[in-house]
Amino acid sequence: MTNPKPILFSVILALSFYLLNAQASIIWQGDTINRVDVNGGRQGLWQFADNAAGVKIAMHFKNDIAGDTIRYFENNLLRLVYIKSKTDTSRYIYYDAKFMCTGLFTRTAIDYCSDDKSTNEQIKKFILYEIYPVYYGSRTAIGEYLGEKVKSFPPDQTGTVKVGFTLDKTGKPTEVKINSSENEKLNSYCIRAIQEMPRWQAGFQGGAVVTVPMVLPIICK
Hints:
With 221 residues, the chain is mainly beta.
């Protein structure tokens, strides 16, 4: 996400995800994924899902270093394998229901392996695929989390506080700050609520995990 703009929490929440340990691993469909070791390094299988589009991206990390291969699935079918290179040119393998083909690409150009326009659009879509961060759980999970936090705020204080933060490459909220506040007495409580939040699914774009700035309003009534 090149120079991403801060976004209000309107992203689609990831369904069918269950948090195993906010700072260790996540269990999804029986798989243990997105593990972070005690030093904050990414380990093992990492997956990023765009549930609305039926797209899942899978890659592996060892000691916080990404492997060379990224797999893109659509509706549980393998559609593209992205093979990174240490040079500027990388390789891809595209899978269709009827055929497969392979080609090369760089940061600025794609060598399409098909003469079919719609196939080439699919290849481009996966190579450049972008997934915004999502909070693990049901559609109400983040509201439930913040609702519990708000219960510990001073009961005589009300107002809306918009908290800005950056999701790092593990999905952890960092650089937490107040963007705007109707009640400064709530600011420190709101900052702490975001700092203590479990990890999200991190952002992903163009074959890499990326940091993403976010803005989340916390309403105290």
